[in-house]
Amino acid sequence: MLQSVLHAGQPVNATDDTRRTALHHAAAQGHYDAAELLIISGADTMARTRDNATTPLHEVTTGEVAELLIQGKADVNAEDDWGLVPLHYASQNGHCDVVRCLIEYHASVCPADGLGRSPLHLAAQHGRVQVVQELATLGADLSCKDKRGRTPLAVAVAFAQEEVVKVLRQMDQLLGGMGAEGTSLRALPVGSPARMTRCSTLHHTATHCNTLWA
């Protein structure tokens, strides 16, 4: 259907009334084949919407399509009008495979939006346990503060995200004896008992994710 429309002369970067292109919609709906055809046909991977100036990579919902967009020259650190980058969106919405893909392609792990919030803050606020674990494991700073002086743990407490609170407190305990440099799980020595405990903790807590996302 899409191929027929393109062959009929429909501009590949045509937009709707929100200035979303077909590539925005394909990314948001996780349609790999459609996104691939659009990119091959010259779709702009950096097209911006009218409302928040989001790109298709801000709205993507699957790691497969995210990688396709990045290979099509999408900027992994592009900011929308509020200073939010794709990693903020993926973290807030619980798209763990997108989070992994973005960081694999060198997205900043701790970017701050206009309110000073990191992706970890948004994952904590919205109860995205698996994303919190993923970000922490990939080097996110557990002690970073937003412009109100709140850490991700403080945000999780404020929004009554009990599973996230539990996980972040467990991480804090693991890092508690590491001094000033102990702000990220990457600081744990490879093969150390603490790292092994961390892995066991993350595996146990992951079983609760589906109930949070239901």
If you had to describe this structure to a student in words, what would you say it looks like?
- The protein is mainly alpha-helical and 214 residues long.
- It is built from 13 helices and no strands.
- It has helices at 2-7, 22-29, 32-40, 56-59, 63-71, 86-93, 96-104, 119-125, 129-137, 152-158, 162-175, 193-206, 209-213.
- Biggest β-sheet, characterized? none
Distance between the termini: 33 Å
The helical percent reads 40-55%
Average of pLDDT: 86
Q: How much strand?
A: under 5%
Order of helices and strands: HHHHHHHHHHHHH
SS-derived structural category: mainly alpha
Show unreliable segments: 189-214
What's the helix count? Answer: 13
- Count of distinct strands: 0
Q: How big is the Rg?
A: 19 Å
Shape descriptor reads: elongated
Descriptive key words:
214 residues; disordered C terminus
SSE diagram, text form:
Elements: H1 2-7, H2 22-29, H3 32-40, H4 56-59, H5 63-71, H6 86-93, H7 96-104, H8 119-125, H9 129-137, H10 152-158, H11 162-175, H12 193-206, H13 209-213
Helix pairs in contact: 2-3, 3-5, 5-7, 6-7, 6-8, 8-9, 8-10, 10-11, 11-12
